[in-house]
Amino acid sequence: MKAYAGRVLKIDLSTQTSAIYPWSEKDREMFLGGKIMAAKILYDLLEPKVESLSKENILVISTGPLTNTGAPASSRFNISTISPLTNLLTSSNCGGSFGLILKKTGYDALIISGRSRDKLHLEVLEDQVIFHSADELWGMDTEHVQEVLPKRHGKLVIGPAGENLVRFAGVFSGERTAGRGGIGAVFGYKRIKAITCFGSRKTETAHEVKSFYKSWIEKLRKHPLTGHQLPTYGTAGLVTIMDHRKILATKNFKSGTYQDFEQISGERLKRDHLIKNKGCITCPIQCGRQVAYEGKKIKGPELETIGLFGANILNNDMEAIIRWNYKLDLLGMDSISTAGVLAFMMELNEKGLLKSDLKFGDISAIDQTLEDIAYRRGLGQEMAEGVKHLSEKYGGKDFAIHSKGMELSAYEPRNAVGQGLGYAVSNRCGCHINAGYLVLFEGLSMAMNPKSQVNKAEFTIFSQDVMEACSAAGMCIFTLQAMLPDFVLNKPNHWLTRFINRILTTKPVALGLSWINRVGPNLLPIHLPMIPHTKALSLATGFKIRLGEFKTIGERGFNLERLINISRGLEVSHDDLPKRLKTNGVPLDALKQHFYECRGWHENGHPSDKTRRKLGI
Amino acid sequence: MIKVKIFGKLTEHFHEGEFELEAGSLKDVLKGVSMRCHVEMNFKHQLIFVNKIQVKRISSVILQPGDLVTILSPAAGG
């Protein structure tokens, strides 16, 4: 069983017991690891109508087969559960060292069920699980609690927001976050303050991988995105181009361009605040930033935090964004949802629907409001429930920027309609990544016609499936961005690049991609040099994983997650966007029906029997 | 005068990311930008916007005084 630790541990918090969960060789080959493995486990174990904040809800923390094998950017792990924010499935992928160390304990995944009576620090060792009291840890912020936990252990903790069941509380490992969907609140409900792990087991691979990994790392270092833009400016380097393409969410998504974008740009962050790059362990890209704040060296903000705490609330103060980013980490809250809530509150206030101190362009009340949300004080009690809840209570549904209850990230989709489709059909709800991240082609590195409907569903499906499989392998999806050819990126004005951009939204290309999306694994028996993940997986696991199998594994994962959501009451009408983004913007109905058709789903959004048979689910 | 703003990779060649140039066409602006940084620039590697609208054919763009030319590098990852 190469590339896997070989064991999955199920921990019952109610009885404080643990046991090995059966996970076969065939399961590994079909569901790989990470979020797809988690989807299969949740699909098998969860009762359909289980409440997110209940002892029946289950957390699955899983690594991938490439984790701890030395593959580039492979220290990631995934957490899946039922989200308190959407009441549907959520999955959150996180960097840091926890995944790497978890695998060294000899476990590929932890399944956590039940609810502890007492506040808990769960310590997972190679052959032992210890249930420590967390009475003394409860109330600590995420930095403090990690300081007092064992130094060499992998750590996963919540802050006050998770303890107070804020529906968008995150889980933190070092400075990295499993931010989206409120997993921190599930930890809090189950009374888990911290999970730590330690082990020293090695992960063996089926074949020699070092030389292949070396060439892959070199390729990532030479690529214009992973070798230059991301290391130099971080994800914040996108602010300028997003503004120019009019996809930078501004004033609660009223527009896609912000007059003060330069003051919150990646260039400004680098010039005025950057101390050094600080990325995840095992990662050659190092997109993370370290910045100075009050004499401390802290994590710098990412694009989403900058966009949503900047343009989307009309704030051009980068120092304030850095401060809030740090504060959110300490309190343990997702910056995307928190900022979405603030922008919505500002618009409610502006329209006279709910009076508060929150105003666009005025940041004076924000520091206090972040604390109020985390501790559920005053209006913070309502804000901790998210935008959807606020809009149902106070009005403003047309400009409540969420999909299925999850606040959208910083990409304004009216000028990137494929991204808009993705937001609406994403299993994780308003997530830009699970959406398929089509904005990469529509408005960032390439210039595929952002308004055209042609090929958007087909492209979204291909991208979603490949990213699912990449994530399940245990890798950062940024490694996939190197699949964009250097030539296209380096020569955006060349006639060939313009030709490529143009044909991407033509019917023949759409038909070709549709064929690729439909064929089974045996019809794409190739390794593409720009997607080295397939060869890495084949070498590491010994499984035959070429492009066809890789994409099919991703498709299996996406459909499994869809089936979980359907079992929880998901309907076609829920695959939606707020009216603001559809009016003169995303032609969602047409895109959505075509997406269903291309996915092999019925008009009601359910995967057909034929699709399920093809995928073996 | 044409206002020029430089972002991304190209800023490595400049002390300032913003300046003004006398020019009547985009081609002239790019020639001026090259001279300013004393390096032979290849603008095929950059995304060029005039008044925030992306330019498809550099050679055909005539500029008016007060126009803003922005030069960006491709970017991804968020």
Strand order of the largest sheet of chain A: 2-1-6-3-4-5
Arithmetic mean of pLDDT of chain A: 95
Give the fraction of residues assigned to helices of chain A. 40-55%
Strand count, sense and barrel status of the largest sheet of chain B are: 5 strands, mixed
Strand content of chain A: 5-15%
How much of the sequence of chain B is in beta strands? 25-35%
Task: State the largest interface.
Answer: A-B, 44 and 26 residues
Low-confidence stretches of chain A: none
Main beta-sheet annotation of chain A: 6 strands, mixed
Give the CA-based shape of chain B.
globular
Low-confidence stretches of chain B: none
Alpha carbon gyration radius of chain A: 22 Å
The count of DSSP E runs of length 2 or more, i.e. the number of strands of chain A, is 17
Oligomer: heterodimer
Tally of separate helices of chain A: 27
What value does the Rg of chain B take, in angstroms? 12 Å
Helix content of chain B: 10-25%
What structural class do the secondary elements of chain A suggest?
alpha+beta
Terminal Cα separation of chain B, in Å? 36 Å
Query: How many individual helices of chain B?
Result: 1
Classify the secondary structure makeup of chain B into a structural class. Answer: alpha+beta
Give a quick summary of the entry.
The complex is a heterodimer of chains A (617) and B (78). Chain A is α+β, with helices and mostly antiparallel strands.
Structural commentary:
- The complex is a heterodimer of chains A (617) and B (78).
- Chain A has 617 residues and is of the alpha+beta class.
- In chain A, helix 17 crosses helix 19 (456-472).
- The relative contact order of chain A is 0.12.
- A five-stranded mixed sheet of chain B has the order 2-1-5-3-4, covered by helices on one side.
- Helices cover 15% and strands 26% of the residues of chain B.
- In chain B, a hairpin with a 2-residue loop joins strand 3 (47-50) and strand 4 (53-54).
- Classes of the chains: A alpha+beta (617), B alpha+beta (78).
- The interface between A and B is medium-sized, with 44 and 26 residues.
